[in-house]
Amino acid sequence: MSRHMPVGSDRGTMVDRWPEGPAADPEAARERYDSDMRASRKALRETVRADQPAAHFGLGLVVVASVIVELLVGPVAGVLVAGAFAALFLVVLVVLLLRGLRGLDAGRRAYLFTFGWANWA
């Protein structure tokens, strides 16, 4: 099936579904789509971007939460909270190293991924 043929179409083309109608230029429509997708992804990246101070704050929150859980529940529970974040950091670091990032850049990105959520807390 052609990528231009919608499911259930009688005529077999998407020209009748484009806003321009039968005079539509498929290449211009593809460029417009690609441009819109780039803009949408850029806006999403800007929205969920984490920075170093937010990650430091997130690490601080994890430490405080671990201490509170340790005091209220017990030392094993506190270590489990801290260990879960440490394990997440290590998994992300290994994935980044496997993808080709090296050195401090891989560590920084893993740190931002693991603790950057404090930007939204």
Notes on the structure:
With 121 residues, the protein is mostly helical. Helices cover 66% and strands 0% of the residues. It is built from four helices and no strands. It has helices at 26-47, 52-72, 75-98, 103-115. The longest helix has 24 residues, at 75-98.
Describe the structure concisely for a colleague.
The protein is mostly helical and 121 residues long.
Task: Tag the structure with descriptive keywords.
mainly alpha, 4 helices, 0% strand
Task: Give a quick account of the main beta sheet: strands, pairing sense, barrel closure.
Answer: none
Nearest-integer average pLDDT: 81
SS elements, strand count: 0
Poorly predicted sequence stretches spanning 5 or more consecutive residues: none
What fraction strand?
under 5%
Total helix count? 4
What order do the helices and strands follow?
HHHH
Residues in helix, %: 55-70%
Q: Tell me, briefly, the overall form.
A: elongated
SS-based class: mainly alpha
Task: Report the end-to-end length measured between terminal Cα atoms.
Answer: 47 Å
- Supply Rg: 24 Å
